[in-house]
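A favour, since you know our structure tokens better than I do. What I am after is a single protein written out in full by you. Could you add the entry underneath, on a fresh line?


***
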Amino acid sequence: MSDYLMRDGAPLDAEGWKKIDQMVADVAKKNLTARRFVPLVGPLGWGVDRAPVFGFGQTEGSHVASESPVLADLCEIKETFMLRAQHLAMASASPFGLDLGAVAIAATAVAKGEDQRVFQSLLEAQGALSAELGDWDTLGGPFKAVAAAIASLRAAGFDGPYATVMDPAMYARLAALMQHGRREIDLVGKLTSAGLFHSTAMPDDKVLVTSPQAWNYDLVVGQDIATAYLGNEGLDHLFQVFETVALRVKRPQAICILG
């Protein structure tokens, strides 16, 4: 890994890289939402830049994948950060250590970029189902909407477990609904045993209800989130947090968009 990430040229020892890698991993785990329910393929390595996407149909009564797949390009999601030479010198000469805030901010941006790519692809999938969002400010409104979406998915042949995703403001509205000790969020959660999630990558006027099975869609990871050294800029040093991914939607009717 150190060859193509050019880590040997950075002014960091093994312990310094370990701290950066741990920060990136911790921040990514905290901020990645789609990976909590979308099936993963990989990581396959940086050298994989395209992935086959097979459709499914029937031939002489048998279910079969299409003979000729569409090739999906893996996109690169990246963010740079800088470590100042003076701060590196201060870290080695004081007990405070190196402040890795810039690392965390870059890793957060990459994680959010992945979620934006995944949710945009799900929302724009050709052939996805749709249903009315309904009233999310009235008790029973969200439950009715999600239940209708699940009924549509079942009618299309897609069984559970189901996952539901919305933006944080919508999630807050759902969490605020309660009457006589009955919490709307608990009722909706029972419908979606694969998880009830919120992400800033989701628009505030749509909710996704979906059957997250690998034969419906998956996320191909080429290069998983990693940090590379880009070189110096004067006395200071530039780094890049990056990854390559592609969402493969094989059966778009496994997705229902409330809007």
Observations:
- Residues 101-123 form the longest helix (23 residues).
- The radius of gyration is 22 Å.
- DSSP finds seven helices and 16 strands in the chain.
- Helices lie at 2-5, 14-31, 85-93, 101-123, 141-155, 168-176, 184-191.
